[in-house]
Specification:
Layout: H1 2-8, E1 14-16, E2 28-38, E3 46-59, E4 65-73, E5 77-85, E6 91-92, E7 100-102, H2 105-110, E8 129-135, E9 140-151, E10 154-162, E11 169-176, E12 181-188, E13 192-201
Antiparallel strand pairs: 1-7, 2-3, 2-13, 3-4, 4-5, 5-6, 8-9, 9-10, 10-11, 11-12, 12-13
Amino acid sequence: MTHLLVGITMATLLVGGTTPATEPTPLRTIVYNVTSSRHCSPAQFGDEHGTLTIAILAAHPDQTLVADVAFTGESIDQPTVRVTIARDGSLSYNPPGSPTTRLCPEVGWIVPLLARGFLTGAQISPGATWDISYSSPWSRGITWYRVVKVDGARAVIAINADRGSRRPTTGTMTYAMDIHSPISLELDSLFAHVSADRVSDSFERR
């Protein structure tokens, strides 16, 4: 999904860095362990490991979600940021007049995959393919998806995302189709190699 590409360059973007004084009770909370090996610039070489926490606060009729996201890593801490996730995975943030903070790449790599419209119109069977195009103020491109394997409500999906860079983003993820979220993710791009595994999800059936 092209919002994956947005996430890979997200470290250069500014987003709203505070949350309202009165906090709603999360509808859903998801936690991921994320490991990345960055190689996009001398200042960002090296490995990072941390915990990404996503608290879904609202689900609107237009299929948008509102979430508080935070990342706690060995060398990087992302303060809680409130984002709106559009049905196509686009992220909205930095409301007018709010303080600003940098959104770490770990947020952009994972959060867009929670979008309600990710599977809309897709035929989920081995070999099935679809693509999603996007255009934002920061970048544009297209991501292709191919279903590798289906096991009940779980699907292994190959990812090939291109926005005209020297090297496309490729990888695979295991996706929970019943609760619209990745269980695990491996991505490789010009900028980083990323591995993410879900630790917990309050929506997961026991």
